[in-house]
Amino acid sequence: MFRYALTIAQRIIQQIIRDRRTLALILIVPVVVMTIIWLSFPEALGTLDYVAPALLATLALFFGFLLTGISFLRERSQGTLERLMASPVTRADIVLGYLLGFFLFALLQSLIIVLFTVYALNIHYTGAVWQIFIFQTVVLIGAINLGIFISAFAKNEFQMVQFIPLIILPQVFLCGLLWPVAQMSNYLQWISRFLPLTYAVDGLRNIMLYGKTLNEVGGDLAALAGFAIGMSIITGLSLRRGVNG
């Protein structure tokens, strides 16, 4: 079972490593973005300490979605996915293989964001860094599968980018990043309950601001894990559509 998944993942990893410009952007862009955000906040008010957990969750979702969506779209446009679907490889192999291949770089990007934010920008936090990173990992898995799924509805990279305002921005406004969810209208609060970023922001804030453990944010983790598993299943079912466009 899944015997071809590692082969697919290895090919994805080698392909991205050979693209040095893309690899450099994966490593550099998170640092630049977090630095700009850090410089834009008034240090004396400690505002960034409160916003940082939400930013970490948002950037993990955004970069994971963007990296995976565009890269997977390239696989489709080059005919690679079509050849895989015509081979004995199962849909589960394809989903897991692409997930593992993209996950390595998304995980590296997330690690850079977390370490740079905590140590270089000197953000004050109370939780353990390793628990922050594990929580981020669950967020990333959902973001990667979301990117693969949404890419099935785009025919070029421009269309893929246009999904960002539709998929990512509403979550940014409704997740509690800018203002508490409890202060929103009842129907917006209801919508926010179905958005993975809401649980990502809530969980990371509880860990970083209030020192809670992974067990204590188990509800948020369960919601994110459920989203990741659900997206994996939907992604596998949508692969044929992705090939046919």
Description:
By secondary structure, the protein is mainly α. The protein has one domain. 78% of the residues lie in helices and 0% in strands. It contains 11 helices and no strands. It is globular. The model has no long low-confidence stretch (mean pLDDT 86).
Supply the key terms.
single chain; 245 residues; mainly alpha; globular
Strand content: under 5%
Largest sheet: none
- Number of distinct beta strands: 0
Shape type: globular
Give the H and E element order. HHHHHHHHHHH
How helix-rich are the residues, as a percent range? over 70%
Radius of gyration: 18 Å
Mean pLDDT: 86
Nutshell version of this structure?
The chain has helices spanning 5-18, 20-40, 47-77, 80-85, 91-120, 129-151, 157-167, 169-174, 186-192, 196-210, 218-244. The protein is mainly alpha-helical.
List strands and helices in order, with pairings:
Blueprint: H1 5-18, H2 20-40, H3 47-77, H4 80-85, H5 91-120, H6 129-151, H7 157-167, H8 169-174, H9 186-192, H10 196-210, H11 218-244
Helix pairs in contact: 1-5, 2-5, 3-5, 3-6, 3-7, 3-10, 5-6, 5-11, 6-10, 6-11, 10-11
